[in-house]
Amino acid sequence: MRFGAHVSVAGGLAAAVDYAVSVGCECMQVFAKSPRQWNARALDPEAVAAFRDRCSASGMGPVFTHTAYLINLGSDDDGLWERSWRALADELSRGEALGAAGVVTHVGTRYKSAPERTAGRIARGVDLAWTASGAVETRLLLENTAAAGTTFGDGPDELGAVLERLDAAHGHTGVCLDTCHAHAAGWDLAQSHTWDELLGAFEVCCGMPIELIHANDCAFGPSEHKDRHAWIGDGTIGVDGFRRMVSEARLSDVPVITEMPGEAPVKDAENINRLKRLRDGVAGS
């Protein structure tokens, strides 16, 4: 299990790798464009080459990107839906250019006028995006939600329903499990049995497709549907919940990314170190 953080690219892509190394990242996640805009300039080829060279030279990886927050593949507004899958296609193309192992996305909201059509609507958008992107190596990872409001994708059942309906993107799509979101949605990861139950549910629905973990503690309790990240061990999942995560054999090869509030570099260095200490403790025992 390798640990890293979502890091800023404000100083440039190559500088983001240097920062990641400095705080102890073994893997990393970045935005390939502004997360709050539909459109962005094309990636600069020289910057992309420098980023890939720096990752290779430092042994950084795997690398992931996260899509813009505007994407809503479940919308029943045809214009927004098309704009969303085209934006996802662009994100996949950017991830491919950067050598990303995966592109993480939220799937959006329920299909308001016919909720039973949501999974199929999302799957169709994913298929169109995958075909248009030209991606080959980069995988698409669907992230679970905290089940707040009308959001879709709160766990194995809903994400599995999307995965089983895929056509063109079948075999190229997996899951990014966010621990804060899962806890907030009702999977109480502070309890000793929950990790086994959650992974078992993913195995039943779709063969345990988790390819990335966003390891974030939760500032609120389970089933409160509040997506508020806390530092590892400081929230309601707690140290023991994350110790169980790093002890789970089914997750031993799954990379882990933190997405923490607070000031850099302390927030990243401290939370990565907390996870590494748990890993070392488990290995020692």
Notes on the structure:
The protein is of the alpha/beta class. It has a single domain, classed as Divalent-metal-dependent TIM barrel enzymes (TIM Barrel), CATH 3.20.20.150. It contains 9 helices and 10 strands. It has helices spanning 13-22, 45-58, 78-98, 118-133, 156-163, 179-185, 194-206, 238-247, 266-284, and strands at residues 3-6, 27-31, 63-66, 102-105, 139-143, 173-178, 210-214, 217-218, 229-230, 256-258. Strands 1-2-3-4-5-6-7-10 form an 8-stranded parallel beta barrel, surrounded by 4 helices. It has a two-stranded antiparallel sheet with strand order 8-9. Helix 3 (78-98) crosses helix 4 (118-133), helix 4 (118-133) crosses helix 5 and helix 8 packs across helix 9 (266-284). The longest helix has 21 residues, at 78-98.
Task: Kindly summarize this structure in a few lines.
With 285 residues, this protein is α/β, with parallel strands linked by helices. Helix content is 41%, strand content 14%. The chain has one domain (74-284): Divalent-metal-dependent TIM barrel enzymes (TIM Barrel, Alpha-Beta Barrel), CATH 3.20.20.
Task: Walk me through the topology.
Elements: E1 3-6, H1 13-22, E2 27-31, H2 45-58, E3 63-66, H3 78-98, E4 102-105, H4 118-133, E5 139-143, H5 156-163, E6 173-178, H6 179-185, H7 194-206, E7 210-214, E8 217-218, E9 229-230, H8 238-247, E10 256-258, H9 266-284
Parallel strand pairs: 1-2, 1-10, 2-3, 3-4, 4-5, 5-6, 6-7, 7-10
Antiparallel strand pairs: 8-9
The total of helices stands at 9
How do the SSEs run, as a string of H and E? EHEHEHEHEHEHHEEEHEH
Radius of gyration: 18 Å
Structural class: alpha/beta
CATH class: Alpha Beta
